[in-house]
Design a protein that fits this description.
By secondary structure, the chain is of the alpha+beta class. The protein has one domain: 2-Layer Sandwich (Translation Initiation Factor IF3), CATH 3.30.110. It is built from seven helices and eight strands. The strands form two sheets. The chain has a four-stranded mixed sheet. The protein has a four-stranded antiparallel sheet with strand order 2-6-8-7. It is globular. It starts with about 40 loop residues before the first helix and ends in an 18-residue tail after the last strand.
Length: about 300
């Protein structure tokens, strides 16, 4: 599908000669005046940032975050993006079957892995040491309700001191913290390591007709539903924690747990855990110096 569309032809045909004072014709894709990038133009964008060698950058961070970059020894390199369009599948479940749906769990893992790997590829291409202020989103489009677009964005950063830069075979660090969050971590003696996640797609069984009638008009716990949702959330949390430990992290900070229905049918939902894996910085922790402040603005 052409990116710029096709120009129409005038009534005189393509051989008509324009008048001398006519403006120059715009570059034409069909005529070969414009060379389209191989993959939606992102390589050209990254190449322009790389060629500037730090003289030009793009960043989604706030001004407060950018102010702290000097203290961290970092500099922004460019905004990076990772995305994939995925088909959301469906697996038939029996009415009273309460269990994980591994096919859908794996599919959601694969989509997010593709998204994150492309985000990291852009950071590597820019020579970045890390990606901060990562934001994840899933979009659904009216023209394809069974499709979902997974999108990750962030700001690629690089250490000013070449001696502190990552080894060529080491991946860039990733975190959803912005510059302010990374600065606070460093003050606590930690450095960001990786943005980790765990998920679980679970089918919650329906109740039998007898069980439904037995609770009519009563305030009672529904233990089968409680146990199903508890198990699904625990699986998501455990998988996030295991990923952090495999990467050699010392802890997870600012983690969250969310649930969502993806159109898989009744009683099927996904539980997703996200967190920031951190690593202790060798040596003595920088001292904190809190100060007393009186706020009389009110």
């Amino acid at each position: 599908m052409p990116l710029f569309g096709q120009r129409g032809h005038d009534e005189a045909g393509s051989d008509a000669t324009p008048p001398p004072d006519a403006p120059a014709a715009p570059p034409s894709v069909e005529a070969g005046d414009v060379e389209l990038p191989e993959f939606i133009g992102e390589r050209e964008r990254l190449a322009q940032l790389r060629k500037s060698d730090g003289r030009f950058f793009t960043s989604r961070d706030s001004l407060d975050s950018l102010l702290l970059f000097d203290d961290l020894g970092l500099e922004p390199v460019g905004s990076v993006l990772g995305a994939t369009m995925y088909h959301i599948g469906w697996v038939k479940q029996t009415w009273r079957d309460s269990r994980e749906v591994p096919e859908l769990t794996q599919m959601m893992y694969n989509a997010r892995e593709l998204m994150m790997s492309r985000l990291l590829d852009e950071a590597r291409e820019l020579g970045a040491d890390g990606i901060i202020d990562i934001r994840l989103n899933i979009y659904y489009w009216d023209w394809g309700p069974e499709l979902a677009e997974f999108v990750a964005t962030g700001t690629a950063v690089r250490y000013r001191d070449p001696a502190r830069r990552r080894a060529p075979d080491a991946p860039p660090f990733t975190t959803e913290y912005d510059g302010r969050g990374v600065w606070r971590l460093r003050r606590l003696g930690f450095a960001p390591l990786a943005f980790v996640m765990g998920n679980c797609v679970w089918h919650v069984a329906h109740q039998s007709l007898r069980a439904t009638l037995n609770r009519v008009g009563r305030n009672v716990e529904m233990p089968n539903f409680t146990q199903a949702l508890y198990s699904a959330r625990e699986l998501a949390m455990v998988r996030m924690q295991e990923e952090a430990q495999r990467l050699g992290g010392d802890g997870i900070t600012t983690h969250s747990l969310s649930d969502a229905k993806r159109g898989w049918g009744d009683h099927v939902m996904e539980f997703t855990a996200f967190g920031n894996t951190v690593k202790r910085i060798p040596g003595e922790r920088p001292p904190l110096s809190p100060s007393l402040i009186f706020d009389v603005s009110s």
